[in-house]
Write a structure and sequence with these properties.
Elements lengths: L3 E5 L2 E7 L6 E5 L10 H4 L3 H4 L1 E5 L17 H15 L5 E5 L1 H9 L9 E4 L10 H4 L16 H10 L7 H12 L3 H10 L7 H7 L4 E6 L7 H5 L12 E3 L6 H4 L1 H15 L1
Length: 270
């Protein structure tokens, strides 16, 4: 599938789009990743029922870059919402991974037609951010907030996306995506953490739309105990959906299970 490009608010955004007339699922990737991380979803049976779109965030992959001061969740959310509007898919189901999950949550405030949100690798944060509660005490979390990375840091950060089993092929995919990311995107994200964004804990507590949360049982970065303690009245199936043999990235680690859960959630919304 060829990558496409669309200029939104003066920034060129890259994306993949399977086309078709079914309900739309819009995938939003994580920090230091890219749209191709969802290639296993775009080429799956999901595309027979749904139109699948994966957008590449500014500063990532082949999308345009911006000044370091612009990067942050509110900035990303506004660009994703503008992208969806320009493509005529502002009623898409949002699927957000890691940073993409925070962006998806922020988008619910500015995309009223979104019927539901699925997030994973994303602990809803308070304002000011309660990072010590929401994330596990893994020093590699800080690497994702560091601009220029050494080769060793890139490799270690890529490994942290997976469970406790080494997978050189998947690690190599993540390494390529990390290297293609603007270092300013990580540095800007770190500086923006204390800035203005929605209190996501309050957001999920007050959310009227269905919210699905997936979580790999071997997650190395995010605290399951923290997520499960939150008040989330619209939580899909009444519980966080745990995925065996997966860490931070079940969309590539356990693709069939992940796709099945996405399809089941989208099917109920449709």
């Amino acid at each position: 599938m060829d990558k496409q490009f669309l200029e939104v608010s003066g920034i060129r955004l890259a994306y993949f789009d399977t086309g078709g007339g079914g309900p739309v699922i819009l995938f939003v990737h994580g920090n230091s990743s890219a749209a191709q991380t969802f290639s296993r979803q775009l080429a799956s049976d999901l595309a027979e029922t749904y139109r699948l779109v994966a957008v590449e965030l500014p500063g990532h992959g082949e999308s345009g870059r911006v000044p370091v001061s612009d990067y942050g969740v509110p900035f990303y959310a506004k660009r994703v919402a503008a992208f969806a509007s320009a493509l005529g898919i502002d009623d898409a189901i949002l699927v957000g991974w890691s940073l993409g999950g925070h962006i998806a949550l922020e988008c619910t405030d500015i995309m009223p037609k979104v019927p539901g949100v699925l997030i994973y690798g994303t602990p809803p944060l308070r304002r000011p951010p309660n990072l010590d509660e929401a994330f596990l005490p893994n020093p590699l979390f800080a690497v994702g907030m560091t601009g220029i990375l050494t080769q060793e840091q890139v490799a270690a950060y890529a490994r942290s996306f997976l469970g406790d089993k080494s997978n050189p092929a998947l690690e190599a995919e993540f390494v390529e995506e990390i290297r293609s990311t603007d270092p300013n995107a990580r540095e800007g994200l770190a500086k923006s953490v204390s800035g203005t964004y929605l209190d996501e804990v309050e957001l999920v507590a007050d959310m009227a739309r269905p919210l699905a949360i997936l979580h790999g049982r071997q997650e190395q970065l995010v605290s399951l105990e923290y997520i499960e303690a939150l008040t989330m009245p619209t939580l899909w199936r009444g519980a966080v959906q745990l995925i065996d043999d997966a860490g931070h990235s079940p969309h590539v680690e356990t693709t069939q299970v992940f796709n099945g859960l996405v399809g089941a959630f989208a099917g109920e919304l449709s």
